[in-house]
Amino acid sequence: MPETVLSNLEAAARERIRTAAGAEELERVRVEVLGRKGSLSEISKGLGKLPPEERAGAGRQLNAVKQALEAALQARQTEFEETAGKARLAAEWIDLTLPAPGPARGHLHPISRLQAEIEDVFTSLGFTVLDGPEVETEYHNFDALNIPRDHPARDMQDTFWLTGGSVLRTHTSPVQVRGMERFGPPLRIIAPGRVFRNEELDASHEHTFYQLEGMMVDRDVSVAHLVYFMKTLLTAVFKREVTVRLRPGFFPFVEPGFELDIHCLICGGQGCRVCKQSGWVEQIGCGLVHPNVLRMSGIDPEEWNGFAFGLGLTRLVMMRYAIDDVRYLQGGDLRFLNQF
Ligand code: PHE
Known about the structure:
By secondary structure, the chain is of the alpha+beta class. Helix content is 41%, strand content 18%. Helix 2 runs antiparallel to helix 4 (52-91), helix 5 crosses helix 8 and helix 5 (110-123) crosses helix 10. The longest helix has 40 residues, at 52-91. The chain is rod-shaped, with a radius of gyration of 43 Å. The protein starts with a helix and ends with a helix. 30% of the residues are buried. Phenylalanine binds next to strand 7, strand 8 and strand 9.
């Protein structure tokens, strides 16, 4: 009896060991077959009922099966461990020869980048980049630019007045004056920088924004020169044909004065909140320098003349990247800034 029972049991156990899906299933087989209440110990309990001459042989067979199954279990167990180990190695593999990722690096703000590009264009044309103070004297911000005392630009609405009569400069034009005072004619300067106006905030107005001023003083400077430089500038910035229009514009420090508008690139001229539904965005105030302005800075308008322009750097950035709200630019939101 025990022989067939034993060999059947061994065959069944081996099959279960072979097909076990994992260590847990293997453990169940071990308990059920080799455990204290397992099938083998059931059989061994029956040994005592055998006739004495059969008992020893059956006991040996039982032991042999027990050892064989233990070995099979152990072998299968080792197999599982090896597979798990290999999977872990594959999953956790690290190439220690790779360079470390290093800290996340910042980058230039889109306004700084555009500013640098425009500086490159103008320095290659013989212009010097000038800096001026953000806290200006009333003289440099207004008087020396032929802005009379009753001009609306001096209105408390637009200007941040500081105690002592200084102002936060409302435009970069005072740097024209500082350039003329410092270098005299002939002169080619640009002056990028931050300007401030006490304005109602909306999608196209901020109290703080960036302008870029330009001025050239020489002999026989004409509107043709001005137009040439403006076109060179816009082609460099937009790297394509942009539709512009030149309208007469009033600025006390130029005569004649113009406003150069570009076709709104955000809505393609259809009208949107940035162009206030007009399809055009005012980008550059410009003109030929007023003789009074030259004279006040010690330059003889009979001998010298020039052009000047002041472009809205912030607005130009908005056109370039189709940003429809000026408040994003200085808002400090990394979700916005990381796109550039
Ligand atoms: N300063 C003018 C402004 O802020 C722009 C300008 C500069 C116009 C130079 C003419 C010449 O609007």
